[in-house]
Amino acid sequence: MLFAQGADYTILGETERLTRHHLDAILAHQPLVLFAPDHHTAWANTKALDLVNMLHGAELGPGNEVVMGTDGLATGELREMEAFSSLQAAGGFDRYRLGLSTGGEPDPYPNEAEWAQDIAVMRRGLDYCSRHGITTVQNMDGNLYQLELLAAIEKEDGSLPCRVIIPFHFKNFMPISMLEKASELARRFDSDWLSSGVVKMFYDGVLDSWTAVMVEPYADKPGDCGEGLFTPETFREAAVEVDRRGLQIAVHAIGDGAVRAVLDGYEAARSQNGVRDSRHRIEHIEVVHPDDIARFAELGVIASMQPPHPPGCAGVPLEPTVSRIGRDRWPLSYAWRTLKDAGAHICFASDWPVSPIDPIIGIEAAVTRKRWAESDPDQSFTLMEALSAYCVEGAYAEFKEDGKGRIGKVILPISSC
């Protein structure tokens, strides 16, 4: 299996979609898979689809799709993790993707050689983070196996190069009872260097593949608002239960419809469980509806956002994203300044490996952010605001603002990955 990373959605231009036939023309005799920079879409050649028995499609959960052609066969475009996880497993990446793809653990458990290999991979990742000045990694992947690897490194070395927080990843196919595992991880891992206590969820996909959930239809796809990985009802039930357990929630929500559904879930949790300093998070918030801006401060929800994400920043192409969003929604897209001015806590982060982990790149993107149209509001941050969002607000997001994020007037970078 040959994997390639970073294929733009417009790799063939703004109108033609990449298919297995294009990839077959490049390499027909070996399984080949290209991944989009956002890790939410993959394109596979015919050999790869045959290998995992997906050429004729597959039954998948909500929000995931094997795109089918008019000939009744898969085009090669695979949207969201459930659609391409079998290819990653076939290529030997199953252990590294379990936290994201299933929230589960390796089965069978790795043997001694595999364990040593995974320890080496984890060490390289930690070293990569620390060489970029990262002092704390707020990981948004998450399973027990990652915690066990990190705990072994900490025991052997006496400490870790970076402090690490690992969540439990709650998937839409899990019963609510699985949240007991999240509570158990929080109890077992609660040191200064390695901790849990967070539940991560994905509510939707991304704008470029029309899998983000919107309040109104996509500008370039009338009638389509995207399909959530959760329904508002199932998410609300999960949010109430996680909050009842005293855990923090972090939810990937890109479209304004997803952001609204997550805010509704957090509001339901406050209503049923009572108000507490929960600091629940929403990750990304690439589009927000004007009716929901004030709700972040009202509900005490952290807006965890990534300065390299907006089209036009850090080398990200404008298309197809700006056309998906539509001109009317541009003013409230990637709206860091608007949310900050409305009283929300803005925590900047990298979303590595989707975006570069280097905080300097993110700070530059935040400070030099340009409008897509002159009539759009200026969403850029000052240098000190960007530093604070990466450091002080990062510490606030993990309830550690009294002990990290700044030393006197020196600010230390914290990254959400």
Name some characteristics of this structure.
417 residues; Diaminopimelate Epimerase, Chain A, domain 1; TIM Barrel; 2 domains; 6-stranded parallel sheet; 5-stranded mixed sheet; 35% helix; 15% strand
Walk me through what this model shows.
With 417 residues, this protein is α/β, with parallel strands linked by helices. It folds into two domains: 2-92, Diaminopimelate Epimerase, Chain A, domain 1 (Roll), CATH 3.10.310.70; 112-416, TIM Barrel (Alpha-Beta Barrel), CATH 3.20.20.140. The protein has 15 helices and 17 strands. The protein has helices at 20-26, 46-51, 81-90, 94-101, 112-131, 144-157, 179-188, 232-244, 256-273, 293-299, 321-325, 336-341, 359-367, 383-390, 392-397; strands spanning 2-5, 32-35, 41-44, 65-68, 74-79, 136-138, 163-165, 168-169, 194-195, 198-202, 248-253, 281-284, 302-305, 345-348, 406-407, 410-411, 414-416. It has a six-stranded parallel β-sheet with strand order 8-10-11-12-13-14. A five-stranded mixed β-sheet has the order 1-2-3-5-4, sandwiched between helices. Strands 9-7-6-17 form a four-stranded parallel β-sheet. Strand 12 (281-284), helix 10 (293-299) and strand 13 form a beta-alpha-beta unit. The longest helix is centred in the first third of the chain and has 20 residues, at 112-131. It is globular, with a radius of gyration of 21 Å.
